[in-house]
From TrEMBL:
Residues 22-219 form the Bacterial sugar transferase domain. The keyword Metal-binding does not apply. PANTHER family: COLANIC BIOSYNTHESIS UDP-GLUCOSE LIPID CARRIER TRANSFERASE, SLL5057 PROTEIN. Keywords: Membrane, Transferase, Transmembrane, Transmembrane helix. It comes from the Bacteria. It comes from Thermosporothrix hazakensis. Belongs to the bacterial sugar transferase family. This is Lipopolysaccharide/colanic/teichoic acid biosynthesis glycosyltransferase. GO terms for molecular function: phosphotransferase activity, for other substituted phosphate groups.
Length: 225
């Protein structure tokens, strides 16, 4: 497994008991949710195949805990062979102090409104974050947690400062503080601080709270207050 070179010495030390309970929570909730979501997953897969050519799932290299590279799984929401430079340039703008144009979108993975690369079905599943459902597989594999910082793309991490590397001390998550409370009104630096504060808190109750608050974010298609 590839690992990106870390450029800072600071780390966040985790309580072993917290990590064990958090992992147990990940497995239990994922296994309980799987049968309930099976119909939704099948329906989305059929809609994707009918809407545009290409595979149902989209695999993308992301950076996980301690700089480890892994393949994150999502439902495909874009046309095949879409230009990824659009996303790269907007991420650079965001990291340099710009704002994401994400009105009406939960912004769980730096998604942009009116993106021409997105399919008709893709717009629906991205707005409701249903494109993220396959990440339960990443959770079961131990590459992600239900709650944690969003896993960044390799070219994002290449621009990280020493402080920003701290958000890679913990496992990335399907949802988290920024996804629930932040979205487009939060700057990149604010997002970093929210992630670091979450990792330092190490609270199972906070994890449960964020999981519960994610539900209305998905239903309403917007970030929480």
């Amino acid at each position: 497994m590839a690992v990106l070179q870390q450029e800072q010495a600071s780390i966040i030390t985790f309580n072993p008991t917290y990590l064990k309970v958090k992992r147990l929570l990940d497995i239990v909730i994922t296994l309980l949710a799987a049968p309930l979501l099976l119909f939704v997953v099948i329906l989305i897969a059929i809609c994707i195949k009918l809407d545009s050519e290409g595979p149902v799932f989209f695999r993308q290299k992301r950076i996980g805990q301690d700089g480890r590279v892994f393949e994150m799984l999502k439902f495909r929401s874009m046309y095949v062979n879409s230009d990824q430079n659009i996303h790269k340039e907007k991420i650079k703008l965001f990291m340099n102090g710009g704002k994401l144009d994400t009105s009406g979108d939960p912004s769980l993975a730096y998604k942009f409104r009116n993106d021409p690369r997105v399919t008709r079905v893709g717009r629906i599943i991205r707005k409701t974050s249903l494109d993220e459902l396959p990440q339960f597989w990443n959770v079961l594999r131990g590459e992600m947690s239900l709650v944690g910082p969003r896993p960044p793309l390799p070219y994002e991490v290449e621009m990280y400062t020493e402080r920003e590397w701290l958000r890679l001390c913990g496992k990335p998550g399907c949802t988290g503080t920024w996804q629930v409370y932040g979205r487009s009104r939060v700057s990149f630096q604010d997002m970093i601080e929210m992630d670091i504060e979450y990792l330092q808190m190490q609270s199972i109750w906070q994890d449960l709270k964020l999981i519960i608050l994610t539900i209305p974010v998905m239903i309403l298609g917007r970030g929480g207050a």
